[in-house]
Each structure stands twice: as C-alpha cells, then as structure tokens.
Amino acid sequence: MAGVLCALLGGFWLGEEQAALAGRVIRFHVIANSDSQRDQALKLQVRDAVLAETEKFYPEGADLETAREALSAHLGELARAGRETAEAAGYDYPVTASLEKCWFPTKEYDGFALPAGEYTALRIVIGEGAGQNWWCVAFPPLCLGAASGTVEEAAAAGYFSEDQAALITEEDQGYVLKFKSMELLGQLRGLLSH
Predict the structure, then answer these.
(1) 15-29, 46-60, 121-135, 154-168: which has the highest mean pLDDT?
(2) Which among 4, 102, 152, 160 has most CB atoms closer than 10 A?
(3) Which one, of 17, 65, 26, lies nearest residue 144 by Cα?
C-alpha cells in the first residue's frame, strides 16, 4: 500500500512538472497520409518545407506567446507550403495546418526527452492523416534547421528553468523511467475515468 501511495504521489508531482513544461513549448507534429514508403518520404519533404517556412515567422528573441501568435497568423501559409511540396512531388493530397492541444507519448530526441502529456502543437496533416508521424519541438526552436538549438541554450535564454532543463536532459537517462511512469499513470487515469 505504501508503494502505491508513493507511486501516486510521485506521479502527481511529475504530472505537475509535465504541465509546467508543456506550458513552455510548442510541439511540431507532422502526420503522413499513410504508412506507404512513398507517403512516409513525402511526410519528410513536407516537414522540411514547413520548417523552412516556419523559420521566417519567428521574430528575433520571440517568447512563447509571440511564437504562438506568429504560427496562428501564418497557418494558411504553412499549409500552402506543405500542399505545394506535395503537388511538386506528384500528389494531390490536401495539407492542413493547425495549432491545437494534442496528447503525446514520452519522446526521446537527440540529447533530450519530453514526458508524455498534453501539449500545444503545430499539427500538419497530409491527406487522410492515417500514417505514422514525425515529432519535434517548434518552440523554443529545437528542430528548426539553422535556427535549432539545444535545451541548454534554450534554458540559458530563459525558455526553461534550470529544473525543467535538468528534467528533460538527465545524462543517466533516468528521465525515461520517470516519463514512462507518468505515461502509465495517465493511461490508468484514462481507464478509471471510463
């Protein structure tokens, strides 16, 4: 019983940490039309085109709200960049762009990981959106080509607190275990709410 109580208390604490972290980032989520090799290759081409377009919209020294406003104001242009890329590759798939709340599983990137939970995301859907997807972080720009940086640089610029940066970049990979426990707790909450 004590173990269950400790797990629940730890889960609640980690849940609060995830919520605080989620309030400081905008994820980037590209969903392919299908899992065919051609559609998966197209997904990466659309990703690159949208990332290149996104870089144009962030003003120098943007904060989270400025980035959110910039993305919101240019969703049509981001969708058009994706659609034009699909057309140039010979596809007539529609491409949509939205800024919305989405649930993400724990995801490891190069040098950091983000815990499972709900995040605001720039979401690009190609065609039916029935294929595998690609994730990264649109703000702070941790995957935006030439504008990309590291978590340490983002923390130094004030995007993350020292505790948040440490949470997502633990060198011993301990964050993965913590984040998986958060994911399991979230799934348990979902089962209990039904």
Answers:
(1) 121-135
(2) 160
(3) 26
| Contact assessment for residue 53 and residue 77, using Cβ atoms and an 8 Å cutoff | yes
Question: Shortest CA distance to 175 belongs to which of 166, 184, 162?
Answer: 166
Total residues found in the chain within this entry = 194
Tell me how far apart the alpha carbons of residues 39 and 58 are, in angstroms, rounded to a whole number. 29
- CA 165 and chain centroid, separation: 16
Half-sphere exposure of 138 (CA within 13 A, CB side): 35
Return all residues near 57 (Cβ < 8 A) that are at least 6 apart.
Answer: 70, 71, 73, 74
3-state secondary structure 115-183: CCEEEEEEEEEECCCCCCEEEEEEECCCCCHHHCCCHHHHHHCCCCCHHHHHHHCCCCCHHHHHHHHHH
Q: pLDDT tens across 167-180, in order?
A: 666 554 454 444 55
Confidence (pTM): 0.74
| Contact (CB, 8 A) for 93 and 105 | no
Q: What is the DSSP letter of 111?
A: T
DSSP secondary structure letters along 11-71: HHHHHHHHHHHHTT-EEEEEE-S-SSHHHHHHHHHHHHHHHHHHHHHSPTT--HHHHHHHH
Token digits of residue 53: 């377009």
